[in-house]
Amino acid sequence: MMRFLRSSFVIARRDFSATVLSKAFIFFLLGPLFPLLLGGVFGTIGAKVASEAEQPVVAVIGTHADFQRLKAARDEMAQAMGDGAVVGVVGYAPEPDLARQQKRLLSSVKPPVRAVLSGGLDHPQIFGPSQDDPTFGQIRLLLSAARQEDFARSPNIGVTTVHGDNGSLAKDRAETALYGQMLLFFLTILLSGMVLSQLIEEKSNKIIEVIAAAIPIDAMFVGKLFAMLAASVLGIVVWISSGALLIQFMKTGGVQTLPPPAVGWPMFLALAVIYFGMNYLLLGAAFLTIGAQASTAREVQTLSMPVTFAQVLIFGFAAKSIGSPDSTQALGGAIFPLSSPMVMLARAAELPEIWPHVAAILWQAIWVALILRLGAKLFRKTVLKSGPRMPWWRFGRA
């Protein structure tokens, strides 16, 4: 056992030093900047398109008093439904040629007039939309509210605020579960793909036989996997530190906090760290087993696409558990080892029990050992062509 641990530590230290001290590690640390840059570019484009397509408005031709009552009714409706859900209103003084004024306003682009309302509150006339248009329905509601004498007087309604309501709290915790799963998926898909090419250098330099003769194959797999995990953790620490410094320098003060998870923030953050490690080890062990069968960098590139699609499918399967942590599908996702960390992290946000996480972590650790053991045996038979012949129902002939 001590020889196994020493061999694993030697491999881990060698691979960690080779990865961190290389020039390529700098580009690895800069990796998250590219999706952030793309997100900023596309966000700017979307904001420009949204600004050009301004909120449609209703041109109101009539007296100033009628317009003010209509605008007050519109503001009250916007307060209840949201400003973006209600059309805007703009007032215009009537002109001698009303028909020409209506056509000119309806063809206006700045602001984009969707309908023209004339005739005042007593004899309204709508020019533009049909009765099936949602704008027509909103104008009718605005007119009904504006024609009431006391529409602006809000009734006295007793309000009792209930903190921790089951319905709203469950919805808020589901939001925290979703963001936790997305962050775990993003970090894993960004970091675990490197494990596919871990054995390419040794196989291309023909030194894999020397390493296999000196240390057990299982120790080599464990050392390489934990070396990449340590390098990934180092990258995450650098990213978090850089983000914290950026927020400190910007002094925005407007960062929206997520709803508190069911187990509390300290326990949730601790479980998030543990589940990231388990998720990385599980997927990394599977990817190391798959990548060990590749002999060239081209084969690794060919394997990258199906591996990425598999990760997306696992994330989709795990996301189905959000909102129903005790359902059959959620329990199946917790039992399936590759999706278990993401499902259990979502469960920590929604349910306060701790003992299922202890069982899940032990279950995931068992599967990490099994996958590594399976990968080492498969590598020994198919690549090194060594060891006793195995039955066909296990691995088949090399």
Description:
- The chain is mostly helical and 398 residues long.
- The protein folds into two domains: 55-146, D-Maltodextrin-Binding Protein, domain 2, CATH 3.40.190; 168-382, no CATH class.
- It has helices at 2-20, 24-29, 33-52, 64-81, 98-106, 134-146, 166-191, 200-204, 208-214, 217-250, 265-291, 297-319, 328-335, 340-350, 355-382; strands at 57-61, 88-92, 113-118, 125-127.
- Strands 2-1-3-4 form a four-stranded mixed sheet, with helices on both faces.
- A hairpin with a 6-residue loop joins strand 3 (113-118) and strand 4.
- Helix 10 (217-250) packs across helix 15 (355-382) and helix 11 (265-291) packs antiparallel against helix 14 (340-350).
- The mean pLDDT is 80.
